[in-house]
Amino acid sequence: MQTTSIHFKANARRALADESLQRSLTRMRVGFQHKRAAAAAKLPEFETLRDEARDLKDHVLEHLDFYLEAFEAKVKEQGGHVHWARDAAEARQIILDICQAVNARTVTKGKSMISEEIGLNEHLQAHGLTPIETDLGEYIIQLRQEHPSHIIAPALHLHKEDVAETFHQHHAQYGLTRKLSQAPELLSEARQVLRSQFLAADVGITGANFCVVETGSTVIVTNEGNGDLTQTLPKVHIALTSIDKLAPTLDDVTLLLRVLVRSATGQEASVYTTFSSGPRRADDLDGPEQFHVVLLDNGRSAMLGTEFQDMLRCIRCGACMNHCPVYGAVGGHAYGWVYPGPMGAVLTPQMTGIEQAGHLPNASTFCGRCEAVCPVRIPLPKLMRHWREHEFQRHLSPRSVRYGVRAWAFAVRRPALYQRLSGLGAWLLKRLARGRGRLSRLPLAGGWTAGRDLPAPSGQTFQQQWRQRGGHR
Amino acid sequence: MSTARDAILTTLRRQLKRGSLADEPRQRLQHRLQHPPRHTIPQRGLVPHSEQVNLFIQMAERADASVQRLSTAAAIPAAVADYLHRHNLPSELIVAPDPSVAELPWSEHPSMRLRIGAAQDQDKVSVSPAFAGIAETGTLMVLSGAHTPTTLNFLPDAHIVVLPAPQIVGCYEEAWQRLREHAVAMPRTVNLITGPSRSADIEQTLQLGAHGPIHLHIVIVDPSM
């Protein structure tokens, strides 16, 4: 996927002016936030479970090499195959090879963000295969040749009128020419069209929310049942996942599921949580004849043991973006790559380079809501700050920022000078405000005042006021 | 053979600042895999069995499943006939080969036509047994196997599941423990099912009946009734 993270500012400006997108985002904020809060309130143990989920993921990361090898052995023991991919290109090639080995023509797909991360659909198409997304949201945006704007609600940016228009355009080939307007009719038509695709597919590709070491299982969590039809009907099931998704035991994955579902959609349980272990057994009446797991690294192993290790705890629930004021204002596409919101602001620089994605960790007010709702308590603001530090150290920040920070650092190390300068600044800003209490224009801060007024200071610094009140240390 | 595998494992160990794990920690982890430690289990499921049955029904209904209680399995065919009639569903059934459902007195209801095996596209109503019911969230645990094909859970419009009350447990952990005791190896597929299929991908508005069943009907057989 083409990354446009470098144009975040322009993307964001466009998103803010997009009235249709703004309506969608308003709907999202109300829906997701209320549902999560209600689900958390119904489970008194929720906060304890979050602590335990964090500790469990830390335990797995500390022993990741052991658990990966043990998982691989268990999958093989049951007749499955495990493939390791260092990067996107290797993963794409592995999957293409599996498809070509069975002369596949059509491939149905369950929802997978890793598939987006490696640009799988484009690759399969370029080699003559037809990938068909079967999650309703993914299906809609595939027809529209768009990318997901949210990791669990890919078509969040669209309205039912958009979907109706898209289906009207693409479903005529199946003799479905009636223009629909209601969501239930649209869903029912997608069900009808995709049913024949499920039955005809040669290979089914799903993601995996978790990989269970104890049983050699990959786990998918869905509501539609599309992932299950994708992996049950074709001859070959490929589970595409990454090395950070391991849970040692069934009890461990249960803990993660309890916090995942409530943080994501606010459900008590997703409709379908499915454990897949190996291919169909000798006497099974259905199920795939081949089972492949693709384990993708793509920069994850390099995060281990660094200040970014905590990010590897992420279970992709989407709560951080659902509660982020920046995501809520500009939506997912503005972030310019696969993963948006706070988790994307940490992952994207790792995967596409800080040179490309430097804007993302800067597009945060550090309000801390993402960390407050994260089911595995990832300190997202801290991780974004680490990226800002990297950017600064590598001289990638804009010149104004670098000189500004350097000038500030010079002053702040000299308290007398700093007090003199800040006193002067406070006095000056008060004078400039001319008693109105606010500044609508300010030299060198046009970017800030273009969209809002700057509240004027009272004319004295905190330390001056503190001294006047007779305060002392 | 696998250079990517070696490269990834090497990077992981380098980042963890150690080599391959020594025997002692390795054995500790093996032991942990064989004796899974329990995490906090929500209190709501840890109640006497009769209350677990009630909680299961309440949670399943909240997830839009319909639930019916019968005191004997022999009453299932009549209950199914009635369910199909009420929902205007065709009286052709695809039934799991498992004796617990295949050998019910279906012939007493000649209006219903029966096929036994895996589901196909044209099948509209399926009947299959559940391995467990999990009260905590009203969730069914359904296993794949020679007598319980997975397609029954997904292809038909209506899925009727038979669940003996003694197989209802309070929490997931209990169901996993029963599975470990029941099966030598993990079945190809374990489905945890909570309500009928749904999607909220259009305008965040929940619609029932996406790609899986539109109706999920659970028949609890409870001899204590």
How does this structure look, described?
The complex is a heterodimer of chains A (473) and B (225). In chain A, 51% of the residues lie in helices and 11% in strands. Chain A is an alpha/beta fold and 473 residues long. Among the domains of chain A are: 43-296, NagB/RpiA/CoA transferase-like (Rossmann fold, 3-Layer(aba) Sandwich); 401-468, no CATH class. In chain A, helix 3 packs across helix 12 and helix 15 packs parallel to helix 19 (380-393). The model of chain A has no long low-confidence stretch (mean pLDDT 95). In chain B, the strands form 3 sheets. Chain B has a 6-stranded parallel β-sheet. A 4-stranded mixed β-sheet of chain B has the order 8-5-6-9. Chain B has a two-stranded antiparallel sheet with strand order 10-11. The longest helix of chain B is centred in the first third of the chain and has 14 residues, at 49-62. Chains A and B meet through helix 2, helix 3, helix 4, helix 8 and helix 10 of A and helix 1, helix 2, helix 6, strand 9 and strand 10 of B.
